[in-house]
Specification:
heterodimer; A: about 110 residues; mainly beta; 6-stranded mixed beta sheet; 5-stranded antiparallel beta sheet; 11 strands; globular; B: about 110 residues; 4-stranded antiparallel beta sheet; about 50% strand
């Protein structure tokens, strides 16, 4: 099946810094999704992207659907403590299955 | 409140003792799915269901069974659990099709000793 590779695997930053992470695929996706998982909870959808080149924001979060359709990027501006968690990219494989990346674990020092 | 409810949240069991993890959603979603989460591997799909009585295998179905007798419920059954099934399990539901904004449950942490 398709594989998604996220980078970096973990990040340790200071509060207030901007964050960038990316996700690449071995094949083309028509949809890119970004989820956040907080400790002890299930993933929650942050942003959905449906068109190549699309740039979508959700508060301090901005995600982009890469032009090649094989990558996507997530940026968080002015990080705050509640941004801590694991961020997953995901894309559909077939009609009813989501493939997930390995996740980027974000830790913030206050 | 719209939600996906999994039970139990935590479970420790012994090898070979059959167990069931329940999943229920109150959003009238057609699509339901089970994932397992392991360090460094992200979430991998075990089984999914597109509607009542319609189920199909995901990427890692070995050692698991599911059933979808009612729209709201999608239990995960481990007939003979083994230590390699120790993991964090998530149930998810959604409307399917191009609407991929699935709602996840809070997870079930299973330990098989």
């Amino acid at each position: 099946g398709q594989q998604l590779n996220q980078s970096p695997q973990s990040m340790f930053i200071q509060e207030g810094e901007d964050v960038s992470m990316n996700c690449t695929s071995s094949s083309i996706f028509n949809t890119w999704l970004w989820y956040k998982q907080e400790p002890g909870e299930g993933p929650v959808l942050l942003i959905a992207l449906y068109k190549a080149g699309e740039l979508t924001s959700n508060g301090r979060l901005t995600a982009q659907f890469g032009i090649t359709r094989k990558d996507s990027f997530l940026n968080i501006s002015a990080s705050i403590p509640s941004d801590v968690g694991i961020y997953f990219c995901a894309g559909p494989e077939g009609a009813q299955k989501l493939v997930f990346g390995q996740g980027t674990r974000l830790t913030i020092n206050p | 409140e719209a939600q996906v409810t999994q039970n139990p949240r935590y479970l420790i069991t012994v090898t070979g003792k059959k167990l069931t993890v329940t999943c229920s959603q109150n959003m009238n979603h057609e699509y339901m799915s089970w994932y397992r989460q392991d360090p460094g591997l992200g979430l991998r799909q075990i089984y999914y269901s597109m509607n009542v009585e319609v189920t199909d295998k995901g990427d890692v179905p070995e050692g698991y069974k599911v059933s979808r007798k009612e729209k709201r419920n999608f239990p995960l059954i481990l007939e003979s659990p083994s230590p390699n099934q120790t993991s964090l399990y998530f149930c998810a539901s959604g409307f399917g099709g191009r609407s991929y904004g699935y709602t996840f449950g809070s997870g079930t942490r299973l330990t098989v000793v």
